[in-house]
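Hey, does this match?
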Amino acid sequence: MLFSRISRNLRGAFNGYRRFLSIGENNRRFLFSHSPADSTEQVMRSLVFSKGMPALYSSRYHIHHHTSSSLVEDELDPFSLVADELSFIGNKLREMVVAKVPKLASAAEYFFKMGVEGKRFRPTVLLLMSTALNLPIPKAPPPMELGGTTTTDLRSRQQRIAEITEMIHVASLLHDDVLDDADTRRGIGSLNFVMGNKLAVLAGDFLLSRACVALASLKNTEVVSLLAEVVEHLVTGEIMQMTTTSDQRCSMEYYMEKTYYKTASLISNSCKAIAILAGQTAEVAVLAFEYGKNLGLAFQLIDDVLDFTGTSASLGKGSLSDIQHGIVTAPILFAMEEFPQLRAIVEEGFENPENVNIALDYLGKSRGIQKTKELAMKHASLAAEAIDSLPENDNEEVRKSRKALVELTQIVITRTK
């Protein structure tokens, strides 16, 4: 069949991409001044993220060789470094979603109890970032109330950020599955499929409310504001996806902005919150933000590749899910550079299965998958550079955590599920 033939061809294109590339822009907004017909290099050089901040990366980082970094002398498993804490956080999450209404509690803890949350990628990043930022603190962080008592234990506060982030993430998955009418999540029935849309939406709302309570307990207005903005971004990104015009669907700038809101905002602002709770400088907080932002963008770009090259058994959603729902992602956008006639198919939509076949045929003949991987690698490299740019520290645990954060950037772009 055409689907399986093209999927096999695209899967074969995934090998050989372990060298990081990078560019030096680090500004706060995405400014794609080029049209979809521009070259990949132009598009990549147009990706900037600006907030009036000084440049973080000099020209010497124009090409980042992964093996040259002092942080990556030997491979290590980032997840094993924080395994005990991840287990602790998993137990805390189950405790935090207990509700008076049994049906609601059962729905809220569905994915926590089923053990389908994967490796808890986001909490792992945040715990590693907590240790990586174990630097001299310019000012003491404010105390936090836990269970009626006051504590200044920084690690407990940062663990709380990991818990909050995971609850927001799972809530967004529950809502997304309802909007996408998904019937599976990580190989098991999605909550909306098992318990219905209404209960799935309420379970997501309940998780968000629990996250808000935990967030308030930190008693840090800047952190509260950051993570409240994340929830707004999640909604904004979903609305952007649902209400695109023809030009927006074919715009890489629009796609990357939406991707930041839907995927990268949560991890980037959570990383920044880790630095803020530690009382670190604005410069260190920006580096933490940049790491999370670029890691999140790389993660989603590879997710977009895997939607075409992976199998539904190994992914959180079925293969070809995006295009069958009419969602145009980076591989198709890059394919349109080489085959402008593909735009007419995209504008017509994918309700007709034959249009899906035609789009896949063009994608298989194009370098869309390869260019998407290259863009993901650029973001992965920028994330690694942010860690390299942190103030030097000779503490072995700090160095090991930084090395693990750099290793995660490679794990993200070489993953197959």
In short: Residues 80-134+150-414 form a domain with the Farnesyl Diphosphate Synthase fold (CATH 1.10.600.10).
